[in-house]
C-alpha cells in the first residue's frame, strides 16, 4: 500500500492485509472494549454487546459495516496528514460575484483564515458554490487540505464538475459509496459525509453542503465523522438553506457562528408561501373533483400558459391527481414523476424544454432541480412526509431566474401543521434580513 | 419495535395466516415478511434427488448424472437467487454476523427432521477465522466456532472459492482431513451442512472422505442451491 493512501486516513485492515505498510504508519485500536462499553473507533457508535459479538470473544461494529467491517480482529492504520501538495491549482473561474456574494465570499475566506466554525444560511438560489471559490483558492494556495462533503450523493455529483471547471488545473478526488475508482490523494476532496469516516485529522478546511439534507440530520454518526476528519486546528463551514433546530441550537450556544445570505443572486426575496385551508381536498380529488381554489389556479395557468409543479405527499396519489386535472383541463399537458420512476430524467427534461406545462411529483424534485419561471402548488403540505426543510426547498424552486424572479408558492392543507408554520416563519425571517440588506445597499444591482 | 435485519424497517408485530403457514417460525420474526418472501424455498417433491436443486419433478438432474454414484445426496432449502446472493454478500463477505439469525430457525427445524448419527458442518480455513472471525455454517447452528473433527488441510482454499470458475473447483484436490479425535464412522449416517451447493465439489470432497472412513451414508444439507 502506498503511503499517500494513508495520509490523513484511517483504514481498517486485518493483520494479514497490514503486513507491508510504510514505516511511519500508526496502528490504532479499531474497537474499544471495556467491561461496560463497546465503542467503534471509526464511527463512534456505542454498540450493543449482544449484537456486536463474534465467536472467541471478538466484537465487530455493525453500524458502519457498509464501509468495510471494523472489528477487534482489525486495527485502524493512519499516517498523519503531511499536506504534501507540491503543485497548487489556482482559481480559473472567470465569473463575477454580486456585491453581496462578494461580501459573503470575503467573510468565508476570513473564517477559513481564522479557523472558525460557521453556519452559512443562504437562501436557495443564492449561488453559494461560487461564493466558496475565493476562500477555497486562498486555502489551496496555503497548501491546506480541503474537503467539500454532502450527505447526498447527487449534490456531490453536481458539485464535482463545477469545482473541476473552477479549478481546472487541480486534481480533485470524488468519493462516494457507488464508486469503483481507486482512491487518490488530492488536495481537494469532494465526498459524501459517510466517506468522511475513512479520514482522520486530514482537513484544514471542511465544508459540509446541504447539511440538513437526509440522512445527515438523522444520523449522529456523521457528526462524529465531521469531527474526526477535521484537524485539531481547522475551519468548518456548514451550508444550508434550511437550518435544523439542532444547528440553530448550536448557534445559540455559540458553538457555531452564523451568517446569512438572505437574497438570491438576482437580489430578490424568497417567494412567500400562501396557505389555503381545505378540509377534504383529498376526498374530493379521489372522486375526480378539483377543490375550488385549485380549479381557479389551474384555469389561470391554462389561460396564460404558465408552467407549474404540483407536489403530492405520496406516489399513489400521482395518477389520481393527474386524472382529475386532465379531466377538468384537457388542454393542459403534463406528466407525473416520482423518485424511482425510470423515466424521471426524461420527464424532467421534457418539463425543462417546455414540452409539457406541468409535472405532478413527490418530494424528489425538492433539491437541485432548477426550472426557470415556474409556480408551485403543494397538495397536503401538512402531511408528515414534508419536513420544514423540504417545504422551504420546494418553495425555493420558484423565482430562480432573473427573467422571472418572482412566482407563486401555494399550499393546500387541512391544517397549519408545525413544519408548515416553521417554513413560513423561516422564509419570513430571511426575507426580513434580505429587505434590510437591500435597504442598506441601495446602489447594488445584479451583475451579469 | 424490532427492526428487520435485512431492510432495517420495523417489523410488523401482527401475525397473518400466510405467515404462520410459511417457513418462518412463530417466534419474534427477525426479518419482515416482505424480505422473507424474496427467498424461494425448494420443496423436496420438486427437486433433484442428487443435489437438491428446484426442478419440475423428483429425479436426478443433468449435472448430477455426471457424478460417479456414491452414498450421498444433497438437500437444499432455498434457491440461490438474487436475494440469497445479497444475503451471502452481507453475511459472509461483509461479515455481518447478526444475519446468522435470518436462517437459524428454519435450518434447525430441517436438521431435527432428519435421522443421523453425526451432524458435521463444513469447516472454514484458519485464515478465514482470522479475517472473517466466524464459520458461517456453525453461525446458523450454534456458536460460529470452527471446531469439528472434519477440518481443512493446509492446502485448502489457496484462492477464495468465490473467485474460482467451475472448472477450477472441480479440479481442486481433497481440501479436508479427519482430525485424530474423529469418532468411529463405521455403519453411521453423517449429516454434512454447508452454505451453498454450487458445483457440489466441496461437499462431495467431504462426503467422499467420510465414506472412505466407513460411514454408511452421507446426507448433505445446504441452505441454498
Ligand atoms: Zn463503526
Ligand atoms: Zn425487511
Ligand atoms: Zn442435481
From TrEMBL, chain A:
GO terms for molecular function: helicase activity. Transmembrane segments: none annotated. Residues 109-261 form the Helicase ATP-binding domain. Residues 293-448 form the Helicase C-terminal domain. Keywords: ATP-binding, DNA-binding, Helicase, Hydrolase, Nucleotide-binding. PROSITE patterns: HELICASE_ATP_BIND_1 (PS51192), HELICASE_CTER (PS51194). It comes from the Bacteria. It holds the Pfam family ResIII. This is DEAD/DEAH box helicase.
